[in-house]
User: What shape does this take?
Amino acid sequence: MDLLVILEDFKSKREEYVRLFECLEEVKRVNPIILKKEQLRESLWFLWDCKFIILYDKEGFFDSFVERLMEFLRKNVVKVEGRMSHYEVINGKP
Assistant: This one.
């Protein structure tokens, strides 16, 4: 399971990060992915096949991102099923 954490700013206190990772040590098979808001883009291929469960979403930021991501995928990406499933970007524009 991937845990995507979007931070408004990386200037937060070190103790906050330590607490987060201490909690994650108790959970097996968790891969934390930490991004700033500005780094979150629809073209991040590792998000294309995710199922999202939003635990906390300040001001609906991530929910609106997921809507934009789904629209981006509908218009720009095709999933090719098969022995080695993969994605193809339409018109070479990610």
Q: What stands out?
A: Strands lie at 2-7, 31-36, 77-80, 86-89.
